[in-house]
């Protein structure tokens, strides 16, 4: 039987509530602390996860942080005082694994938000935030979702990072009006 759109929406919200309640506060807090200490912050992700990482970068830019999306032509080199944050459900995406390895070899910090903390990138990272959801290629572990592929992970990624932004806004005593001054104005 086909559900109504609002029924689907309510089911998605239930899934997001469940996933959010299982994210480690301590690990998320360690990411907040590390971001605030970083000289420059770099974000990376592939596909829809990459879009969530771009959204996170945009909000950090609105806060006045020095943040870059890996792969953009204006992204500078990464250095020891910097932090690379990766969003990857599987934690196995080859291009992201290569970035994480390079960042570690340069002495920079590496953080990942992932379904799989024991992934190749998870094992390299200094901070691993496990998001209890399915990635696009995961079908085991007893987790279920009405949503296709990695949707629950990607939505959880956005909510986690928006919540991190809210906490950093509190710590830096920023509000939306202060951040709006850094919003794009050539649109």
TrEMBL record:
NCBIfam families: RuMP_HxlB. Belongs to the SIS family. PHI subfamily. This is 6-phospho-3-hexuloisomerase. GO terms for molecular function: carbohydrate derivative binding; isomerase activity. Residues 31-174 form the SIS domain. PANTHER family: 3-HEXULOSE-6-PHOSPHATE ISOMERASE. It holds the Pfam family SIS. CDD domains: SIS_PHI. The lineage of its organism: Bacteria, Bacillati, Bacillota, Bacilli, Bacillales. GO terms for biological process: carbohydrate derivative metabolic process. It comes from the Bacteria. InterPro entries: PHI/rmpB (IPR017552), SIS_dom (IPR001347), SIS_dom_sf (IPR046348). SUPFAM superfamilies: SIS domain.
